[in-house]
Design a protein that fits this description.
The chain has helices at 2-20, 36-48, 52-58, 65-79, 83-90, 96-102, 123-131, 141-157, 161-170, 174-185. The protein has one domain (27-185). It has ten helices and no strands. Mean pLDDT is 77; it is low at 1-21 and 190-218. Helix 2 packs parallel to helix 4, helix 4 (65-79) crosses helix 5 and helix 4 crosses helix 8 (141-157).
């Protein structure tokens, strides 16, 4: 009887602890303007506007949301599938370039034509694609992350992709780019340009209250 009591107490403790670390995702819809990580993820979430119930199901499962969440949203939007369908592939350790193939998302939906070469390391694959658009391009996950961020921020801030490429060349991370532009756009203290709101032309890193650090590469 004593052993059962101890086990019951341990189970209750685990249940309480689990409840205490529930993920608050409100920042994905209303971020703290001073928190670049929250703003960065909010920009992606707003650009693609996925169903909130899908976000609340999939997001807490991510160990690196700053790396995966924007690409997840983009792939689901391009393939016209649920976030869960994309995450089922990615969560198994499948590289994004292989996820693209499984979802029939071609490279031309990742790349976007720009006037100025983004430079190394992203310019190599882009340059090959631009010169030989019908040939197969060897993409890396870093390539995918870079161009998805270009498309996402162009979509959210309603600016040409070339503008976003320039922002990134002048900014240390995608998070800082999103944060600066968001504060300028919404009149908060900080750097950035004032741009109109909207999705824009589709041709065209720690995240606050969620889990995981993420790498925020790109």
């Amino acid at each position: 009887m004593k052993k059962l009591t101890v086990l019951a107490a341990l189970a209750a403790a685990v249940s309480t602890a689990s409840a205490g670390i529930s993920v608050n995702l409100d920042f994905l819809w209303k971020p703290d303007p001073k928190n670049d990580s929250q703003v960065y993820l909010h920009v992606a979430n707003t650009a693609y506007q996925p169903p909130a119930e899908q976000v609340r199901t999939v997001y807490p499962q991510m160990k690196a949301p700053e790396l995966d969440f924007p690409i997840l949203l983009f792939m689901a939007n391009e393939a016209h599938v649920s976030l869960t369908a994309v995450w089922d592939l990615r969560s198994k350790g499948t590289p994004w370039v292989q996820v693209m193939t499984r979802l029939n998302v071609p490279p031309e939906r990742v790349f976007v034509p720009v006037e100025h070469d983004p430079g190394p390391p992203y310019g190599k694959a882009y340059g090959h694609w631009k010169s030989h658009p019908k040939e197969r391009v060897a993409l890396t996950d870093d390539d995918v992350a870079y161009w998805v961020n270009v498309r996402t921020q162009a979509r959210y801030f309603s600016v040409p992709p070339d503008t976003v490429v320039g922002w990134r060349q002048a900014g240390p991370t995608w998070k800082s780019v999103a944060g600066n532009q968001y504060r300028g756009k919404h009149g908060h203290e900080g750097e950035g340009q004032d741009h109109g709101h909207g999705k824009g032309d589709d041709q065209g890193e720690n995240h606050g209250n969620g889990k995981g650090k993420g790498k925020g590469k790109g």
